[in-house]
Amino acid sequence: MQIHFGGHVAIYHSKFNDQERVELWNKVKNNEVNVLLGARSALFLPFQNLGLIVIDEEHDASYKQQDPAPRYNARDAAIYYASLFGAKVLLGSGTPSLESYQNALQNKYGLVTLTERFGGIKMPLIEVVNTRQAALQGKVTISESLKEMILQTIEKKKQVILFQNRRGYNPYLICGTCGFIPQCNHCDVSLTLHKYSNKLHCHYCGSTYPKLVTCVACGTNKWVEKNFGTEKIEEELETDFPQCRIARMDVDSIRGKTAHDTLIQQFEQKRIDILVGTQMVVKGLDFESVGLVGILDADGLLSFADFRVNERAFQLMEQVSGRAGRKGEQGKVIIQAINVKHPIIELVKQHDFLKFFKLEIDSRKTFFYPPFSRLILLTLKHKQIETVEKGSTHLANSLRIDFKDGVVGPAKPVIGRLRNQYIMEIMLKLPKDIKSVNHAKTAISHHINLLLAEKQFKSILVIVNVDPV
């Protein structure tokens, strides 16, 4: 970018120290920066003459700030922000969000469709490998078909990316005698075994525990390791391909200010043969020598309890597939799955976004989910489960006075306790017109205040999340 725009290009992200932030803030304020490449928080720098905002990979859920408040979506905020300057907005994605694509079809956005890859390279060939039999034998990590393809790719002096959306060594341990699963003392989640520390980690509150030798429930030591994370895959690769240079890209391995950039440079310079990682390897990386991509657990991507599960799975698999064969010859993708007939896997094989969109948009319309509605998620937290359950029921009944059938819940989320706080959720489905949304703001605040005014519920924490992702 600096080759094209000279020295007036700047970068902004959360790893900057206070001095660097102040320096860049002043440069932007004084119009000394022509092009700024930044994370979502870059939107709040003091631009004076903004003309264009480019949102790359606009579908990405990480554009939505979660904790702490304000819980803004940088994509939506950018569209509004640009309107204040009369600036243009360019949303780019190979797998657009359903909301954005629906807006384009309704002529709210302009639509430009690129029908071929850069350089006329064909989309990668996708092969699905059935791992059902291997799963029954407890051997699912890397199938024999994928190992053979890795070997062929390395022999051609090409590189390999393996994608697994779980970090750690084994996502959980289970007692082979009684079925006991070690869980966090502060959260209702199973603990993940990390080999580098030889400890059990909670990925939600950060607590660590020593690895159990004997089961606290039955006293035996017959532990079974279930599922697999990036750390386990890296170990297996080192055993099966000792001649290859292998690296891992996940939150545990990328530490420090420059670790991520260093790893990417090493891969670009072909000093790494096989890169295994989580979603980090999906995000718009452009490597010219990647000949093979392996998606190791497609079933895991399709098993979340969320109305966006199909959309997220399609986007992730299609995006990571796009890392293969970006220059030179056509790339190849291996998808490992047990449920090989899942319609989303079939659509990924065909690279058919339009058919996926039609399938998913019909389902969203039937059940009144976005883009046909606005969602507001109310999360209630308290250290006593009885209090939060009574309070959430009380609030839901109160909300139904104004919102009738638009109130869904209360219900316990998949993870019902985090950091010793029990959680209940209430979801509101609202029409998209401004009048309904403005009424909802006033009404929700009123009902929450009524709840907290009661002595037994005053210590409940209520979090309002508009347009949750």
Summarize the structure.
This protein is an alpha/beta fold. 32% of the residues lie in helices and 21% in strands. α10 runs parallel beside α11 (343-350) and α13 runs antiparallel to α14.
SSE blueprint and pairings:
Blueprint: H1 2-5, E1 9-12, H2 18-29, E2 35-38, E3 52-56, H3 74-85, E4 88-92, H4 98-105, E5 125-130, H5 132-136, H6 144-155, E6 159-163, E7 172-175, E8 192-194, E9 199-201, E10 208-210, E11 223-226, H7 230-240, E12 246-249, H8 259-268, E13 274-277, E14 290-295, H9 298-301, H10 309-321, E15 332-337, H11 343-350, H12 353-366, E16 374-382, H13 385-403, E17 407-411, E18 417-418, E19 421-430, H14 434-453, E20 461-466
Parallel strand pairs: 1-2, 3-4, 5-15, 6-13, 6-14, 12-13, 14-15
Antiparallel strand pairs: 7-11, 8-9, 9-10, 16-19, 16-20, 17-19, 18-19
Helix pairs in contact: 10-11, 13-14
CATH architecture field of the largest domain: 3-Layer(aba) Sandwich
Low-pLDDT ranges? none
What amount of the residues lies in strands? 15-25%
CATH topology name of the largest domain, in short, is Rossmann fold
How would you portray this structure in words?
By secondary structure, the protein is of the alpha/beta class. The chain folds into three domains: 104 residues, 3-Layer(aba) Sandwich (Rossmann fold), CATH 3.40.50.300; 182 residues, 3-Layer(aba) Sandwich (Rossmann fold), CATH 3.40.50.300; 93 residues, 2-Layer Sandwich (Alpha-Beta Plaits), CATH 3.30.70. The chain contains 14 helices and 20 strands. The strands form six sheets. Strands 5-15-14-6-13-12 form a six-stranded parallel β-sheet, sandwiched between helices. A hairpin with a 4-residue loop joins strand 8 and strand 9. Helix 10 packs parallel to helix 11 and helix 13 packs antiparallel against helix 14. The radius of gyration is 24 Å and the shape is globular. 31% of the residues are buried.
